[in-house]
TrEMBL record:
Belongs to the TenA family. The keyword Hydrolase applies. Pathway: Cofactor biosynthesis; thiamine diphosphate biosynthesis. The keyword Manganese does not apply. Catalyzes an amino-pyrimidine hydrolysis reaction at the C5' of the pyrimidine moiety of thiamine compounds, a reaction that is part of a thiamine salvage pathway. Residues 8-209 form the Thiaminase-2/PQQC domain. Its EC number is 3.5.99.2. NCBIfam families: salvage_TenA. It is an enzyme of class 3 (hydrolase). One of its GO terms (molecular function) is thiaminase activity. This is Aminopyrimidine aminohydrolase.
């Protein structure tokens, strides 16, 4: 069994719980309140900015030039496509938004992986960002009720064939890196993959709840 098969089997339950989230159910039916979707997109813009930096950082650490090129293209293309999607829905709204606790936790986690763990673990930590979104996009495409859905543009970005190519490349690189490393490190890669998958679940849950910080501040800038 290759590394990615074991990794996906390790998160089957988390994935099922993602599909059962109200956010995903209402995105599928198109009934998700726009306010919750906008909250999600604003937090996702913060997430994607950090995700892009981590992808570029991973590229710098990869030994194979082919892998480096792929990660640099992820940093440029994939993130650009997603940011364009945000502009479509938010019409370049320039609201200053603070990262929610879950968003901050997730972005700090992927930066921590890049800064303090092996390159294999760092790559494993970003794989759920690709793979879970692809699965969720396909799931929504297959299960949505035919007709107008105000979130169709979002659904089409992740479901269907275009995003698949990037996802397959990311999975293949993980498998190749896993093959070239120790069993112990392969297991650490699984841990990173599982943790990032939990953080994906939290990110959607926190968007639906429009998560706030439990303590407020009254910042006075100079
Ligand atoms: C939180 C999150 N995770 C993953 C993706 C898809 N790259 C995203 N846009 N946002």
């Amino acid at each position: 069994m290759d590394w990615s098969t074991k990794a996906w089997e390790s998160i089957e339950e988390i994935y099922t719980q993602i599909l059962n989230l109200s956010f995903i159910k209402e995105l599928t039916s198109g009934t998700l309140e726009r306010e919750k979707f906008n909250f999600y997109l604003e937090q996702d813009s913060i997430y994607l900015a950090e995700f892009g930096k981590v992808l570029a950082g991973i590229a710098c650490k990869l030994d194979k030039s082919e892998h480096r090129k792929i990660f640099l293209s992820f940093a440029l293309d994939t993130v650009a496509v997603e940011q364009a999607l945000h502009q479509f829905y938010l019409q370049n709204r320039k609201k200053v938004v603070e990262a929610s606790p879950s968003c901050l936790l997730y972005t700090c986690y992927i930066h921590k992986q890049l800064a303090t763990t092996s390159i294999e673990e760092a790559v494993a930590a970003i794989l759920p960002c690709f793979w879970i979104y692809k699965k969720v996009g396909d799931y929504i495409l297959e299960n949505q009720i035919p007709g107008e859905n105000q979130y169709q543009n979002w659904i089409d970005t992740y479901g269907g064939d275009e995003f698949s190519e990037a996802v397959e490349l990311a999975i293949d690189i993980c498998n190749e890196l896993a093959k070239g490393t120790t069993i112990c490190n392969q297991n650490k890669m699984i841990d990173a993959f599982v943790m990032a998958s939990k953080l994906e679940w939290m990110f959607w849950k926190s968007a639906y709840e429009m998560e706030e910080w439990p303590v407020k501040s009254n910042i006075i800038y100079v």
